[in-house]
Amino acid sequence: MRSEGQGEGNRDNAPDPMASWTPRTELGRKVRSGEITTFSQAYHSGLGIKESQIVDILLPEMQDEVLDVNMVQRMTDSGRRLKFAITVVVGNGDGVAGLGRSKGKEVGPAIRTAIDRAKLNLVEVIRGCGSWECGCYRPHSLPFAVTGKCGSIRVTFKPAPQGVGLAVGDVAKPVLRFAGIKDAWGFTEGHTKTTVNYSMAAFDALQKLSLLKVPPADMSRLKMIRGPTGTSILPKVEPVPEGQRRGGRDGRRRRGGSF
Ligand SMILES: [Zn+2]
Question: What pLDDT shows up at residue 22?
Answer without folding.
Answer: 92
